[in-house]
Amino acid sequence: MDELLGMSIGGAIFSGNSSIEDEIDRLPIKIEEADVHLREKGRDDADGYGWVNLPYQDLTKIIETADWLARFDAIVQIGIGGSALGNRMLVNALLPPFYNELETPLRRGPRFYLLENSEPATAAAVLNRIDVSKTAFVVVSKSGSTTETIAHFLWVWQIVRDKLGNKAQEHFLVITDPKKGALRKFAKATGCRSLGIPESVGGRYSVLTSVGLATAAAVGIDIEKLLLGARQMDQRLAMRQQIWENPAWALAALNVIHARLGRNMAVMMPYGDGLLAFAEWFAQLWGESLGKNGFGTTPVRALGAIDQHSQLQLYMEGPDDKLITIIDVQNRPGFELPRKIEDDVLREFDFLCDKTLGDLLSIEARSTASALIKAGKPVVYLKIPEISERYVGALVFFYEYVTALVGLLMDINPFDQPGVEQGKRYIYSLMGRPGYQEYESEVEKYFGICSKFEIIV
């Protein structure tokens, strides 16, 4: 198997009198125990651990459903958080820029839209760009009760039913818990198509389930290669090695040690527009998995080279509270710059001749890493051969694995989200959902504290 990713580490290896490398060398037993626990629980398909098995799943039903979706002119996926971010990430990485504006054959499948946030202007704009009679709507919520998703769904369902009558259900795919929940009941009652989300897989780890794969396959992404990359990464990480020979072990240990040293921010800075949404996906995976019991580090999304011109000054000379990850891509499309500059007034830029924009982006990634290391900042430098299905699948599985390991090393559950649930209860109370009225007084109490300092301009 050729290299799936390369990892280099530099910068603040020492902090005071304590060597981070020495600290990490004391962690191998705990890391190996966490790794064994992760794999044993995955093998048992324990709650939260089912994503470990996803690289080996049977894709038959997902591909069959994707073939049906591909017959439509457009697909609108309705979901939020883990029910949308993975889809955004796959489309951003693996489809051409401005995909929806392309004509066939450059556009290999239906146009693809997401309805996520409860923003009326966005919802109306999506609806104005589609013909509902030629559109498939994919409704995704594992619980079947996610407020933003259900609100969008009810709105769209009414519109489609008003236009298509008893054929409306032929335009809907429900992806939810295989046994329970309101959306599962809806699918059974209407006979619309449905897929299940494995009960043992949480939303933010679900991109390699039907949640991410059904629409990905419909728009022309090779989901078998995605799983191949994830499978090969899993096999690579399963090798019992020294800590510095296993990239997931090393990266997990680095994050734990730097968190102990007060570096409580995890900057994810890929170089290349195709990995912009990967940083967004990472932010949810990292933040929701690890932010518990006073632990965790705050994910910060950045994009090279754009954020060299906005955030890098802070990283270089601001507080030493960040562990910075840079992702570079080895092989990029060419797009050659001029071989020769004819205009005398532009001759000072001769140094750019015979190079490509891709060369420039990779040079900027290496240069930024070098500058940060010179400033004594901790840097993790990852390199993938290219942005393609296989390597994106490998990168996704790698970060899921690292995140889970960090959680276990911090003695927290990386698969629940108790803090999110309180906000949901308050939303239900203010929206008038039966059974949640008791929380309305709490909202008034705590929001009232904020209102005392309201300033009117």
TrEMBL record:
One of its GO terms (molecular function) is carbohydrate derivative binding. Keywords: Cytoplasm, Gluconeogenesis, Glycolysis, Isomerase. It comes from the Bacteria. Its main location: cytoplasm. The active site is at E288 (proton donor), H309, K424. InterPro entries: G6P_Isomerase (IPR001672), Phosphoglucose_isomerase_CS (IPR018189), SIS_dom_sf (IPR046348), SIS_PGI_1 (IPR035476), SIS_PGI_2 (IPR035482). GO terms for cellular component: cytosol. It catalyses: alpha-D-glucose 6-phosphate = beta-D-fructose 6-phosphate. It holds the Pfam family PGI. Its EC number is 5.3.1.9. Pathway: Carbohydrate degradation; glycolysis; D-glyceraldehyde 3-phosphate and glycerone phosphate from D-glucose: step 2/4; Carbohydrate biosynthesis; gluconeogenesis. It is found in: Cytoplasm. GO terms for biological process: gluconeogenesis; glucose 6-phosphate metabolic process; glycolytic process. Catalyzes the reversible isomerization of glucose-6-phosphate to fructose-6-phosphate. HAMAP family: G6P_isomerase. Belongs to the GPI family. This is Glucose-6-phosphate isomerase. It comes from Acetomicrobium mobile (strain ATCC BAA-54 / DSM 13181 / JCM 12221 / NGA). The gene is pgi.
